[in-house]
Amino acid sequence: MKLLFLVKTLSGVSFLTFIIGPLLSHYEILTPFQGFKLFGCGLLMCLLAFIGLCVVGIWLHNLRQILLYAVLSLVPIILAVVFLVQARKFPPINDITTDLDNVPQFRQAQNLPENKARDLRYPEAFRQIARASYADLKPFVSRLTPQELYARCLVIIKRHDDWTLTVSDPENLAIEGYVTSFTFHFKDDFVIKIQDSSGYGWLNMRSKSRDGKGDLGANAKRIRAFLSELSSE
Q1: I need a surface site. Which of 48, 82, 140, 205 has the fewest CB within 10 A?
Q2: CA distances from 36 to 10, 61, 185 (A)
Q3: Distance between CA atoms of 13 and 25, rounded to whole angstroms?
Q4: pLDDT tens digits for 95-130?
Q5: What is the pLDDT at residue 60?
Q6: What does DSSP assign to residue 103?
Q7: DSSP code, position 122
């Protein structure tokens, strides 16, 4: 019975660890990456707890006693499997742009404390993957003047509570900022550059995750959504 108590306790602690990581990151008690690691530890513990519960339940010939705790441990495992299946649909890159031949460069983002040790140059290894995976992303050409397009971009950005502006430079028609994810508060830096193309606005955009190797398509989705808002205005 002591063994049963131990695996039940492990199951409960595992589930709490699984959910507390995102909560602590969301309320900025932990950094996003720290919260994600705690979340991962909780997931691993849930897997061990589930195996332990099944073994003990079979050994004691009493699966009823472990059923609730087994389900509690199994839910995070199922969520993780779904997550991994979804992740396989996206390339393992986290820096997306509308123009791979003329990638917009960050100016202010490199000066942010969180980015001091990060290399914000566009990775050469990403170019070929991005061309194959996100061929639909191209510069946005507007019928508005560059100045009007710049103003329209600011209006759209300010509508989104999770977008934070760090640079709005009307002289150089440049905008920078970052987007904060809801759960873990991961941050993705973005830059928008607008040029004059025969009197019309020509816009390039780039979105780059600060953490991780992949982004589950989040940066490309963000760019598509932003350009869609621009075209529907």
Answers
A1: 82
A2: 20, 37, 10
A3: 18
A4: 999 999 999 999 999 999 999 999 999 999 999 999
A5: 79
A6: P
A7: P
